[in-house]
Write a structure and sequence with these properties.
Shape: globular
Pfam family, one: Acetyltransf_3
Largest sheet: 8 strands, mixed
Distance between the termini: 22 Å
Number of strands: 8
Keywords: Plasmid
Protein name: Acetyltransferase
Number of helices: 5
Oligomer: single chain
Order of helices and strands: EEHHHEEEHEHEE
Strand content: 25-35%
Length: about 190
């Protein structure tokens, strides 16, 4: 996988959403959900500060080459019919040699239950399996994150593992599910 062999579109449009790179003006919208304890608890880290949200947007402003382990494509998710960021999706190249990518999503809870996470994750998985040539997409999520479990299942991913007490979130041990899907299984 080399940067020259893959075109990453600037914007991905779905039926109801636009997925695009974050812009500096998005920091407030991102902070609105990344600062919430009920969001960060599933990410095994403290809530992000406004400054951390702004700094991470600036750090990723140049995009990704999508060629080396750890390269991450982070996209803001916006509703097509109104301004503002409602969430984000990320695709991280975990193994360039084996063409393995980890997918993730974080959404503002006020937009929960409307299918936005599934729609955005489906578009990102399609990009991964299609233009980026990924062989396997996987997701790791807290077993208590029922909404994300449903997203994985709607995407056709299979549960491959249940990791018990594998991460520490402050003073709480967390268990994770590992979901995955291979390129030949992808139905888009």
């Amino acid at each position: 996988m080399t940067a020259a062999s893959h075109h990453i579109p600037a914007t991905i449009a779905t039926e109801r959403l636009l997925l695009r790179p974050f812009a500096p003006g998005d920091a407030g919208d991102r902070y609105a959900y990344q600062s919430l304890p009920e969001v960060s608890r599933y990410l095994y880290r403290p809530p992000l500060s406004r400054k951390a949200c702004a700094e991470s947007i600036v750090a990723r402003a140049a995009g990704t080459d999508w060629k080396a382990d750890g390269d991450t494509l982070l996209l803001a998710v916006c509703r097509a019919d109104e301004p503002g960021v409602i969430g984000e999706v990320a695709l991280t190249l975990r193994s360039a040699r084996a063409r393995q990518a980890e997918i993730g999503w974080v959404f503002n809870p006020q937009y929960a239950g409307q299918g936005y996470a599934t729609e955005a994750a489906r578009a990102l998985a399609a990009l991964g399996f299609g233009q980026l040539g990924v062989h396997r997409v996987f997701a790791r999520l807290d077993v208590l994150n029922v909404a994300s479990v449903r997203v994985c299942e709607r995407l056709g991913m299979r549960r491959e593992a249940h990791l018990v007490d594998n991460d520490l979130d402050g003073d709480r041990w967390g268990s994770e599910y590992l979901y995955a899907l291979l390129s030949h299984e992808w139905k888009g």
